[in-house]
Fold this protein.
Amino acid sequence: VNCFEVNDHLGDAIDGALSEQVRNRFEEHLVKCIQCRNSYEFELLGKSLVRAKLRHVSAPSSIQVSIIESLRKEFAEPESIFGWLFAPPNRVRAIAVGLAGISIVIMLSFPPWRAETPGVNVASANLIQQSILNFARIQSGDLEPTMKTCQPEGVLGFFEQRNVNFLVNVMPIENCEWYGAIVSEHEGIKLAHVVYKFNGHMMYVYQVGKDDVLNSPMLPATAQKALLESGWYVEPDDAGRNVVLWMANGTLCAAVSSMPKDRLLALLAPN
Ligand SMILES: [Zn+2]
């Protein structure tokens, strides 16, 4: 199959409606072709986001219709970064084809995480690797937040007191058991670390002033390109951990969680 045929089959592939034979050829092509793989990931993401939004509703279909309507309106408003992902399938497909290869960049060679590397930061590692490492250490209890609070405002106050020179993004999460905070420095650059514990999940968000990391080796080139073009970067799955990078209020944030990717994105997407 060629790229045109793969694009034709994207919708059926997502819906699991391809015959086994076509499916095999489709997947063979995705292994070889980055552009088509990006289109596929992009479409999958759009669908899973819509599903994640809808899953919260166990209500009559009229309510689902109104949610879809509001998602469509969101799409019409350019300030909503995620709005375009909520477009009706045909629209998403058209945009997916148009943006393939730029919005969702697949990082092909993610080096394996090294358990033996100590410290809250790893000098030799880029910030994605640092984030994954810190997340693992927090999960294992090896790294403890300096402070824990049940109020998001408490975390903001903590960073303010420690003269963090960029805006730290802390979002209120429903049923959050606690919010944790750590401040550290990496090569003279201040870093803020926010941890959320909720519904049995842990989410860790690494934050740094964007001017400190753009065009620096701390930020992998693929991620930088995606961030500058779309404001977002989604790391391919890595051993059950999902990593999402985005820029907000002049700050670069990297969230790591063991939550499924669709739920993580639904949580991070602006309401
Ligand atoms: Zn292709």
